[in-house]
Design goal:
The protein is an alpha/beta fold. The protein has 12 helices and 17 strands. The chain is globular and about 65 Å long. The chain binds 1,4-dihydronicotinamide adenine dinucleotide, ligand LAXINWYW and zinc ion (2 copies). It is an enzyme of class 1 (oxidoreductase).
Length: 379
């Protein structure tokens, strides 16, 4: 029986309050309005940004909400005027939209899009500034324009990438966030050249994807820095050539790196979300040209600092959102690269769980051996 035009009642993990366990609830998901798409989510991974917002440290965090933004699914129905996808299409929801028409999209200078950001930042849909999720009439906020911890979600059409239907959704869900962010930080934001010396702070999924991207770009040395020494062995498989544990050194870590690289690295990447490490990442860069890219998301109220002289003497400080990838145009390309075995995805999945086990899955995510946990949403 078709569900088009009907309210769908399904299971979703609801964050009622910061830091309180998520609760699996029966949630009503309204039909998509004009310019919207309702997606049956089959698989979602957990990202540290979900945990960050859940913790209450995100200034944009709103409760109650349905978190989740790294997923894959199948279009169930579309609203009026939606032409780029149709029911049955395999898709990846994209928290970074791409309308191809706004000032940002047309600039050729950024992957940020202005079309729906004002609505997604406050947990509602553009059309009527309301949520499509409710429980017994009480609205539940959307999150990042994706809310993938629900068996069905509604997103804006500019936030949907249509992908190869042959691609395994239980794997390519990862191409909704962490892996593209690391690869793109190297390829799009820093534009690392062959022969470069690179340092990566934090060897979780994002940092390992930076290493993978740097290896593909032909970096001559890839220095991985992590306070958890257990991360080092696995990181070799992603391209890391040298390892430093800051706990093994008395000197500031930036000085250790400057000393071992004849003046500093060409490119550094902060993949943790720690503002003190962001400073170290900048200051380990080579005078005159070294570039540091902030990838990690820092808590509300945190600020970065350095001596301005670091920038006066030629170091460059940048940041990246979704690795600078234009989502609707380039996520399908990333899926194709995965299908051709040109990028890793499976290797980042260390755990599998189901939606009902989501709280356990978040506990796992915080364990040292975990990269990504993928949830099967339909069991
Ligand atoms: N800018 C963007 O578009 C995106 C940003 N992110 C952010 O990227 C960050 C990294 O994400 P994941 O790799 O999934 O996280 P993760 O928690 O798996 O990895 C972080 C790593 O940093 C290490 N670490 C922690 N403190 C450290 C310190 N002081 N010095 C050295 N290493 C330290 C940990 O041991 C861990 O291996 C998070 O802040 C996440 O929110 C994630 C996706 C997209
Ligand atoms: N809401 C937070 C900012 C969170 C943030 O920086 N998000 C990243 C993606 S992190 C994915 O896991 C991002 O793309 N930001 C750009 C954007 O438009 O949101 C805060 O207000 O601090
Ligand atoms: Zn993420
Ligand atoms: Zn746009």
């Amino acid at each position: 029986m078709s569900t088009q035009g009907q309210v769908i009642t399904c299971k979703a993990a609801v964050a009622w309050e910061p830091n309180k366990p998520l609760v699996i609830e029966d949630v009503e998901v309204a039909p998509p309005q004009a310019g919207e798409v309702r997606i049956k989510i089959l698989y979602t991974a957990l990202c540290h940004t979900d945990a960050y917002t859940w913790s209450g440290k995100d200034p944009e965090g709103l409760f109650p909400c349905v978190l989740g933004h790294e997923a894959a699914g199948i279009v169930e129905s579309v609203g009026e005027g939606v032409t780029d996808v149709k029911p049955g299409d395999h898709v990846i929801p994209c928290y970074q939209a791409e309308c191809k028409d706004c000032k940002f999209c047309k600039s050729g200078k950024t992957n940020l899009c202005g079309k729906v950001r004002a609505a997604t930042g406050v947990g509602v849909m553009m059309n009527d500034r309301k949520s499509r999720f409710s429980i017994k009439g009480k609205p539940i906020y959307h999150f990042m324009g994706t809310s993938t911890f629900s068996q069905y979600t509604v997103v804006h059409d500019v936030s949907v990438a249509k992908i190869d239907p042959q691609a395994p959704l239980e794997k390519v869900c990862l191409l909704g966030c962490g892996v593209p962010t690391g690869l793109g930080a190297v390829w799009n934001t820093a534009k690392v050249e062959s022969g470069s010396i690179v340092s990566v702070f934090g060897l979780g999924t994002v940092g390992l994807a930076v290493a993978e991207g740097a290896k593909a770009a032909g970096a001559s040395r890839i220095i991985g820095i992590d306070i958890d020494g257990k991360k080092f062995e696995r990181a070799k498989d992603f391209g890391v050539t040298e390892f430093i544990n800051p706990k093994d050194h008395d000197k500031p870590i930036q000085q250790v790196i400057v000393d071992m690289t004849d003046g500093g690295v060409d490119y550094s990447f902060e993949c943790i979300g720690n503002v003190s490490v962001m400073r170290s990442a900048l200051e380990c860069c080579h005078k005159g040209w070294g570039m540091s890219v902030i990838v990690g998301v820092a808590a509300s109220g945190q600020e970065i600092s350095t001596r301005p002289f670091q920038l006066v003497t030629g170091r460059v400080w940048k940041g990246t959102a979704f690795g600078g990838f234009k989502s609707r145009s380039q996520v399908p390309w990333l899926v194709d690269k995965y299908m051709k075995k040109e990028i890793k995805v499976d290797e980042y999945i260390t755990h599998n769980q189901t939606l009902s086990e989501i709280n356990k899955a978040f506990d796992m995510m915080h364990e040292g051996d975990c990269l990504r946990v993928v949830l099967d949403m339909q069991t």
